[in-house]
Every structure is written in structure tokens, then in C-alpha cells.
Amino acid sequence: MLAKRLRVFATTAVVWLTPRAATAQSPVTTPANDLVGSATRARSIVDAAITALGGLSAIQQVSDLTRYVVRVRTDFGQGLQPGVPARNAGAMRSTRDFSGQRLADARYLDITGGQVARFLTAITPSGGITVNLQIGTFRNIPQAAVAANRAVLLRRDPESALTAALARAQTLRFVGDARVDNANCDVVSFADVDGELVTLFVDQVSHRLARSEQLLDDPVLGDVISATLYLAYDAIAGGLVLPRRYIELLGADTLQDSNITQIVFNSHPADSIFAAPLGAIMPQGTPTPGVATRLADDVYVVPGVYSSLFVVFGDFVLVLEGGENTRATENVIRQVRTIAPNKPIRYVVATHHHYDHIGGLRSYIAEDATIVTTPDAKPVIERMAMTPHRLKPDGLSRNPRPTVIQTVSETRTFEDGKHRVVLYQIGPTPHARQMLIAYLPNEKILFEGDMLDIPDGRPAPGGDDTAQLSRLIDSLRLDVNRIVPVHGVPGTIDDLRAALQHRATVHSYD
Questions:
Q1: Is the pLDDT of residue 13 over 90?
Q2: Could you tell me if 419 and 311 are in contact, meaning their C-beta atoms sit under 8 angstroms apart?
Q3: 189 near 172, Cβ under 8 Å?
Q4: Which residue from 10, 49, 12, 48 is spatially nearest to 29, judged by alpha carbons?
Q5: What is the spatial distance between Cα 448 and Cα 493, in angstroms, rounded to a whole number?
Q6: How far apart (Å, rounded) are the C-alpha atoms in residues 325 and 12?
Q7: Beta bridge pairs of residue 311
Q8: 19 pLDDT exceeds 90?
Q9: Burial level of 344, CB count in 10 A (0-12/13-18/19+)?
Q10: What mean pLDDT, rounded, does the chain reach?
């Protein structure tokens, strides 16, 4: 849910308030025809907020800063069933080496179902990397995306958000005032270096940054506010006053509650913090992301962070998994049209209701495809299809179509004289109450989502859901040679066994 944000250089801004957080909202006024006055007033508000943190001089004397964070992620899009959020523990070590222009976030998150995500993102003057700490692989961040990634990481923290606003003073505007989170706030906006419009709420009494907001185009929720609340300000060594708690909201819902247990200044972090661990490798020989790869006659996988598989039947195409967003889905549609130019995509299977697995379905609905999914996912997909996308209108926004959904409670088979695909509803699972897997008996291929991940060609340590998948393969008597995961590249039954031998047990960012 990062990225896909509003890119606009605005001369005025509108304050967007999330319903549960805003109380007794005051009318917001934007000075008309006075851009100079607006910018001047906004600059004074930002200056006061920086002073409330301890002052610009104190901030500039910090050569590096590391925060140790424990957090609880409460995600309505990832629960065992719709409407019940997942509650997952996590932690992060966030290091900012200002003097060396280096940033590193090492983080872990428990995943519903027993797996663990452990990742490092590091950016230096020479570029950036992402590291999968669970399996020991890394990839370079494309050079064109490094600046945007740097900006996203920096503006998360108050001192960096305010100094970014100061550095972008030519884009600063005074928006008005509003009462949010039980405080009267002055509201200013600025356009960051990546073009993102950021709105800052500064408490009129304490002059501390109380909240920051951005307007997003979310694949499932549509136009929605992403906000961070800054709480529990505390005097820290070096004369700074910084918050000890961040609450992140998506729309009206709390997404993440982070408590900062320790803040370390001027520790001169080691170079290793900003690099892949010794022994980590850059994957070689894996399929090219986003490019269809043939697995068997008329069976293709489009690998990526979220992979899709499609089968070319005699009269139509069946797609397994709809992708995480419109961009990914439109790429799969292009691949299908190249390989099967005269056949419609008639069916798209969504394995379960989690938001990150249905975010690309709108493009298929616009193609008149029927969505095949679980009963749990049906109302979630119906709501998603109705959400407005005014920031970035997609194909369904421009050409609305009715949403046709068919559900699978037990099994369903698609077949012609040459091909056969069998869907099994295998829930409840430790990851989701209802879950579909697909089996291609002729090719001995199993397609699954989230229960076994094979990123970069290496199986990630398994969880309870991985163990259940193994048992189900045996109980259903499925003869499986290849496993195609949504997350990762095609593997074998041996990858499943390897994942089970290395169950997720490491819960730290070190």
C-alpha cells in the first residue's frame, strides 16, 4: 500500500480529514489570490514546529539517529475473515545517517498463518537495495526510483518531514486551520521532491507536528487518506523533543501502532547496516518479472511480487489470481493478448479475500471477466468494484461494468478436451478462513497463494499454513511436480519440504 500516491504540484490544498480521527471540524479556509502571503504564513508555521522539536541547529547537529521500534499492525485487509482485522506483531530498526546521506530500515512482521517477513531497505548515495533477510537474497532498487524511495522513508519522521517542507519552501502553502485529534491545528501543505503532496497539521498551542497526511489511490479502498499521528513527545538527548509513538491510519482505520523504545544519537553506525549481509546473493536465472513464461502447452506464468498463471483453453483464457493493483493486472492482460490474441479472458480466480490479492481485479471486471472466488471474498470484491478512483481513474472508472462473481464452496472444474483446472476450497486455513488452490492434473501443477512463498527462487521458511498445505496435498491425493506460488517463482514439491524444515522462528531485525 505504499506508492500509488498523488503526484501534483499544487498552489493550494484541501484538508482531508479521516472520519474517526476528526472531531468538531472547523471550516477550513484557503487564502485566495495571495500565494505569497500563504507561503509566508506556512513558512512561519513550519519554523515554529521545528523550534518545538528543539530548533534547526539542534537537528542539524545530529549526524545520525537510530530508532528501535515495536509495533502492532492491525490490518482490516489481512484478517482471517472479512471485517475482522489481523493483529500482527512487528519491530523495526530505523537508521538515518544524515552526514553520510544513508538510510536503512530493517524490519520484521509476523504474518497470519505462522510465517515471518524480515526485510531490509537501504539507500546510500550510490543507490539502494532491498534484502530478503529470511532467504538471504537482495535486489537493487532501480536508479530512477531511488530518490522517491528516499523521500518516502525520510518524511515518515517529524524532524525529516519538517526539514523537507523547509527545503521545499517554494511549494509551501497555508491551507487553513482545523480541529483534529482533539487539537486545534494550523494546516500547511508542500510538494516533496517526488511530487507527493504532503499535508501537515501543527498544534496551535504546542507548535508540535501532530499529524501528516497524504491522499492515496488505493487499489481496494479507492481515494483514501493515509495519515500518521505523532504522540507522546519526549525530551531526548541533544536538546531534541521527539514523539515516542506513531499511529498510522488508512482511511478511518488504524493500520499500525508503533512505540519507539529507544532513540540513539550520533552512534556512527557501521557500514554493514546499509549493506546486504555477508553471504546474501543477487538471484540469478529466475524468470524475468512481468514477462510470461511457458510452463506447459497453453500454460503460462507471469512472475512478479504477485504472480499470476493463465491457461489458454479452446475458446477462452482462465487467469489464476488477479494481481495486487491495476498496473500489474494490465501487464498480465497485455501478455494474454500477445499469446492468445483472439480469446477473451472469461474467468479470473481470486484465491482469497485479502486486499493485496484482489487489488487488480477491477481491470478484469472492465474486461467483462467473471470473478471466481470464495463466499467470504465476494462482498469484499463487490465493494472494491464500487469504490471511486478520481485521483487515477482506471478502466472500470472510465467504463463501468457490472461485477459478475461466482463462488466456490467446495470444488469447481474448468475443462475442455485438452485442459483441466480443478479448484479446491481448502479453508479454514491459518491464513484465511476460506482459501482456493488450483490443480492442473495433466501438468501436475499446483497454484497457491500465501501458504508457500518462493521469492527469488528460494523457499521462505514455512508456517502453520505451509504445514497444512502439505497435509492437504496428501489428503487430496494430488500428484504435484511443480508448485506455482503467488509470491515468488515456480518451484517443486522439494521446495515445500525445505520450507517445512526451516519453520519461521527468528523474530528480530538483527
A1: no
A2: yes
A3: yes
A4: 12
A5: 13
A6: 29
A7: 299, 318
A8: no
A9: middle
A10: 91
**In the 3-class helix/strand/coil scheme, how is 87-126 assigned residue by residue?**
EEEEEEEEEEECCCCEEEEEEEEECCCCCEEEEEEEEECC
Measured between its terminal Cα atoms, the distance across the chain in Å is: 25
Torsion, Cα of 413, 440, 462, 451 (10° steps): -30
Parallel/antiparallel/unpaired status of strands 405-407 and 293-296: unpaired
- In angstroms, the CA 367 to CA 273 distance is 46
Q: What is the DSSP letter of 36?
A: H
Residue 66 grid cell: 537510530
Residue 127 in contact with residue 140, Cβ under 8 Å? yes
Provide the residue type at 11 as one letter.
Answer: T
Write out the three cell numbers for 448: 497457491
Residue 92 has pLDDT above 80, yes or no: yes
How many helices (H) and strands (E) in the chain? 10, 26
Residue 348 neighbours by CB distance under 10 Å: 28
All cell numbers assigned to 136? 538471504
Written as nine digits, the cell of 490 is 515456480
Round to whole Å and give the CA distance between 474 and 439. 13
User: DSSP for 192-213?
Assistant: -TTSBEEEEEEETTT--EEEEE
CA torsion angle for 166, 168, 169, 175 (degrees, to 10)?
A: -100
Q: Which residues contact 465 (CB under 8 A, 6 or more apart)?
A: 113, 114, 115, 429, 430, 431, 450, 451
The phi and psi torsions of 353 (rounded to 5 degrees) equal: -85, -5
Residues facing 201 on adjacent strands: 187, 211
pLDDT for residue 5 is more than 50: no
Cα–Cα distances (Å) from 163 to 46, 155, 168, 433, 443, in that order, read 8, 9, 9, 45, 57
- What length does the chain have? 510
Q: How far is CA 301 from the centre of its chain?
A: 22
pLDDT tens digits along 423-441: 999 999 999 999 999 999 9
